[in-house]
Amino acid sequence: MDLNLSDEQRLLRESVERFVAESYDADHRRKTANDPLGFSPSVWKQFAELGWLALPIPEEFDGLGGGPVEIGILMEAFGRGLVSEPYVATVVLGAALIEKCGSTAQKQANLPKIADGSLKLAFAHSERAARFDLAKVATVAHKTAQGWRLAGSKIAVLDGHAADGIIVSAHLHDHQGPSGRIALFLVPATAQGLAISDYPRLGGGRACNIELSGVQLAEDALLGDGRDALPAVEWAVDRAMAALGAEAVGIMQTLLDTTLDYTKIRKQFGRPLSANQVIRHRLADMAIQVDEARSMALRAALKADNPPVERARAASAAKAKIGKCARFVGEQSIQLHGGMGVTEELEVGAYFKRLVAFDTLFGGTGHHYARHAQLGRTTQPA
Amino acid sequence: MDLSFNAEERAFQSEVRGFIAKNLTEEMKRATALTPSVFSDPDIGMAWQRALHRQGWGAPGWPVDHGGPNWTPAQRWIFESECARAGVPNVNVMGVKMVGPVIIGFGSPEQKNFYLPRILSGEDYWCQGYSEPGSGSDLSSLKTRAVRDGDDYIINGTKIWTTHAHHANRMFALVRTSDGPRQQDGISFILIDMKTRGITTRPILTIGGDHEVNQVFFDDVRVPVTNRVGDEGKGWTYGKYLLEFERGSGIASAKLREGLRAITELAESDLTGRAIDSPDIASRISEVEVDIDALEMTELRVLSALQTGQNPGAVSSILKLRNSEIRQAVTKLGVDVIGHDALAVEPMRPLYKLNHEPALPEDMLTVVPEYLNGRAYTIFGGTSEIQRDIIAKMMLGI
Predict the structure, then answer these.
(1) ipTM score here?
(2) How far apart are CA A96 and CA A93, in angstroms?
């Protein structure tokens, strides 16, 4: 049992914190928010040079062989700067799904390119009718003579507009009809019949909805051998939730620091706001919740490769708890900034909006307490 | 980073489990489960303390030369967790965990030689004389006075919320020995034999129906000056040192988990009409479980820091605050889980020695009393409001 950072992990944290502090400021964020790309390609190139894109990729595919804890270190620092580069879409989800489901040839073709920054991916899974149920996929993939034909609609695809390839989940229909299995396809962004409508995402970056109207794919667009990909999807989404949880911790920490500074400077009734016990106690509660959130993000990362039920419960626990803490810390940060907190003139709102996006993505607090409860049942309802 | 314990630690865990299996009797276990107050009564608690002492485990936090087992922080965590899981008696902490460390840290060689072995063996049973009717959170305003008379102090005043004063043969107390500009500077730390003439004890029943705390009156009570620990006027420093121990040896999550497990079992049972089938109850159980997970991780992070000699800082206040709040959440959930059965009151104590058939199944007997008595968790040992003050000051610098 040891939860101290190793020397390498400490170095990673120092380098990413320094990078974020030096490269991300309010101006940079404003510029990228108004940019149709939503992030900076030159920063992405630096991520590649610093080895961060290679971080979780196995060494045999030109990666660094890091794990969820290292990803968490990176993401927490990203949160502090509201980084909007497509790291979760490409590295945390994309690379993980290819590593988990892809054939050796597919891994060889894609993972080194992710690591060197020349390939960006997105993961298109959610559908409007499914809400947060990962097992519910209406998009279908029909077997054709040449390969596959995909039809369906996907929503809330992170950074799909910037991706070179989109991993699309679909119900597999082979020559015998519906197989009951979900499969993943790597769809080139340039494929005929693929329509991407992107939009600015709450709290920075972009997302998109995708229409697949009879998209024709080659045989080898199917990742792996066509066995049911749902367990891999759940595994990858649990990982992404742990990573996003760490990012939320960084966001919350910045909000706490900023709000604390403000309450020391802002004077009303002849004294700083922080001289009032009601304010001090609010800030103490915020600090406690940031700390609890940090514990939960780390816990989910450490259990990300445990057996499925334990892993999934830890991921849902983190998502639910961090979501709850995030809402509290975010809302109170605005409250304690008074009227200024509600304006676009301060960055508090931008940080808060990213937390709201976090809480919503992959299901909110209520959904994940319910999933946690369902997974933990030792007896089923009569 | 690694959440699992290493081979040595797992071997220690088996050793602890073996010890518990051999020494925890069914009677102790049932009495503990049926005690809705904080501590087990001395007949149960001290039986367990004697078993621990025989094993050399009577005082996990003490240095080796005073009889401590020389455990690493991880071993202490494993020990406490295994004890909680097995449902061992809740030994009154006033001796081993509270006055013991103060005597070790600040007592004279005579005091160490006399008192420490008696704490370890359970021969002495201690209570704490801190709070007074007029001094709660503002503890240093205390007024119980010790006036020097030759080789004695003469003590007058009163102490309140004195846990197990009706069982204890000794009390450690903070008393006023002088009045200065700073009220903290006139306080001394003194050890009192409860059989001394002039001491009377009045029981206070708490809302759960238990007699655990008391008010103690001192009427010209004569105590030798040699019973003072450390310097006159330094009692506040020693007392604060001890309060940090009270706020948590930092190992509470296992006990909370055990409490939630018992409530979950009730919720899954036909006794409650399977309360767990209500999505509201199921989600709330998860919500509390997740809060325990977060507390456990914080404990383990503190533990990891301690293992490498780092100082975890004001986090003990976070642990105290969250432990007390989660404990209340567990007990509140219990009341909701048993539904209409929360209406039945069993006034007799102890619940493990009833001589009639209670109105409730045995598994439900402690649910409402634990909830009611449990309101005290956010009050004693520094209220939640005081803890937030400490967090704001120590962690946030405001």
Answers:
(1) 0.94
(2) 5
